[in-house]
Amino acid sequence: MAVPVHLSKIFKCVDDNQQQFINVLREAVAIKSVIAPLKMYPEILRMINWTKTKLESLGATCYINETGTRSCRGTGGGSAPLQTLTGQFGHDPKKKTLCIYGHFDCQPASKRDGWNTEPFELVKKRGKLYGRGSASNKGPIIGWINAIDAFQKVGQEIPVNIKFILEGYEENGPNDDRQILKDECLDNPNNAYFRAGLRAYQLLYGMEPDLTREDGDIPVSITFQPVIERYSYSPKQTRLVGFENVMLLPMGPHEDGAHWENEMIDLRNFIQGTKLFAAFINEIASNEIPTDKAEKIKDGFIRKYIRGVHMHFRDLYV
């Protein structure tokens, strides 16, 4: 499958700006966005605002949404206000909209836990990037941000609207994002574009991917499912396919050790994953994708934890 010229330019841009894109992840890893104990909550706020600034620097319209309070597990307990960040690129009603969910909080980490490096300092060693959050979930979020940056660097219009929904409380249990999901993403649910993901993978790697789940699940499904099911039928009674249709669009394998000491992401996977996200953005805008069924797609490292970024689609209507 021949790679389109404009996509080849984006791939080359990712390669040429590899160090810059790694440095963006380095900045994110340095923020100790651990929700418990409560004394770490300012770092969650710092992470929210850092991400907001990063998205806005690329042209996104961002909002911080208050969604209640949450009791904090761990030493000291207490509760913290829940905030969810939404960021929107594009509002063209003629374009499809890609909605990306992710979380920028992470598990506590310390060298005394068995880390070989400082957990909140991104360290490149033997072709791998070590640091807390590099695999779950800052790495994939930064991959999407870098993919958007690459589109802009080569002067290529992003062919879809993109909306981020990012939270800082996933590691402390699921946030109540149901209202935000309903308001922001599910007012007219549309197709899951599995073929777009297959084509994106083929464009980058020259082969078809294995369609597997690696026997995993994702706790956030408990939050998404009732909202998705509530909007399972359009006025024409078009069915929204449920969680049995799960597609993997991974940035790295389960060996990355999310939530464990010495968490890391392979450097090659971080760079190639960024290209894959860019290719996917390109492919979901293709006119070859049918729009006569309503389905849902999720993306990420679907193991026993949230590992990647989960997505679904809708068309915008005025």
Automatic annotation (TrEMBL):
Domain of life: Eukaryota
Keyword Hydrolase: yes
GO biological process: proteolysis
A GO molecular-function descriptor: metal ion binding
SUPFAM superfamilies registered for this protein in UniProt: Zn-dependent exopeptidases
InterPro entries, per the entry: Cyt/Met_Dipeptidase, Peptidase_M20
Keywords linked to the UniProt accession: Hydrolase, Metal-binding, Protease
Gene3D superfamilies: Zn peptidases (3.40.630.10)
PANTHER family, A to Z: BETA-ALA-HIS DIPEPTIDASE, CARNOSINE DIPEPTIDASE 2, ISOFORM A
Name of the protein in its database record: Uncharacterized protein
The species this protein was found in: Meganyctiphanes norvegica (Northern krill)
